[in-house]
Amino acid sequence: METIQRGNVTVHYSGDSRHIAERLVEITEKTYPVLKTYFNAAHDLKLVIYWADRQDWSAVPPNRHRTRYGGPHMTQGENHTHYVILPAANVDRPDSLVAVIAPLLDLTELTPDETRNLKVWLGLGADAGDRRLGDYLASSDFYVDLLVDIIHVHEVMHDFCYEFGIPENHSRAGKGIAWWVFEGLAQWSVLWVNREIGKEDWADAHDLLYRWMYRTGRKRPGNLGPLQYKDYAWFHGAVIEMAHQLEARYGKDYGPKVLTLILRDIQGKDYLPDTEMVKLFSEAAGEDLGAWFKQNWGIE
Ligand SMILES: [Zn+2]
Fold first, then answer.
1. Among 151, 238, 254, 290, which is most buried by a count of CB atoms within 10 Å?
2. pLDDT tens-digit readout, 12-29
3. 140 C-beta neighbours (distance < 10 Å), count
């Protein structure tokens, strides 16, 4: 693999991917100040990014996701160093992402307005045909855009959470941790970051793409909501649908407000259970959301 290194960011990349490595450095450098503000963080993270194809996948840091080529993930090292591992979708398309994209190819789940907006947000132009939209969503270009502008930001948010006080606890059996919040914050933060760095179109596109995924995937048995799902990717669509509804009611600064309250209350604890999270979401909203969470999402 080739390597580029700038400041706190190192990218190891496969094949002819230098241009993508540069994009990864750039988005990371823009994302850091936004997340540092949210976390009131005193220092930067050191980030090592792998943009690895199938052949190089075995060289990425050991992790439970490593066995199968393609699943984007992050992992932690020593001395404030974190790793983000992404498949080199321009070189070798990963099967796991094909499954993520598949629900996005059913245009019947979008209204005509949404279809038109999406074409604009994705830079295809309002007059682009549906065929053009479908071709783009199935192309390597879209896989790369999705990985760099959405999934990478999601992983960097995980890194900030782990570094600054919101640890991963989902594997601790028998504890009532709110896993939907840990993944929800990561996915929701993609909207916050893209808005703050002037990529409003990508924020809007991300919001709609994941809500589209939610709508389509809802038809599959087992996909009930953020607590019960068959498809792990679809679960991220569910948390974005939830975030979308909350933002519609309480505004776009509602998410960061919730994060601030979580950081306040999780201090000295390993995790917060659903009941505590619902209280914090209610506090940020200024009204009791207990019934809303229970009825719409099965969370209490
Ligand atoms: Zn995640």
1. 238
2. 999 999 999 999 999 999
3. 12
Cα–Cα distance, 140 to 154 (Å, whole number): 20
Q: 270: burial class by Cβ within 10 Å (0-12, 13-18, 19+)? A: exposed
115-139 tens-digit pLDDT: 999 999 999 999 999 999 999 998 9
Q: Which of 2, 18, 24, 277 is nearest to 150 (CA)?
A: 24
The reported pTM is 0.94
Instruction: Give the distance (Å) from ligand 1 centre to CA of residue 275.
Output: 22
Cα(34) to ligand 1 centroid in Å equals 18
Give phi and psi for 291, each to the nearest 5. -65, -40
293 Cα: distance to centroid of ligand 1 (angstroms): 21
User: Which whole number is the average pLDDT over 235-251?
Assistant: 96
Tokens of 225: 């909501």
CA 171 / ligand 1 centre spacing (Å)? 14
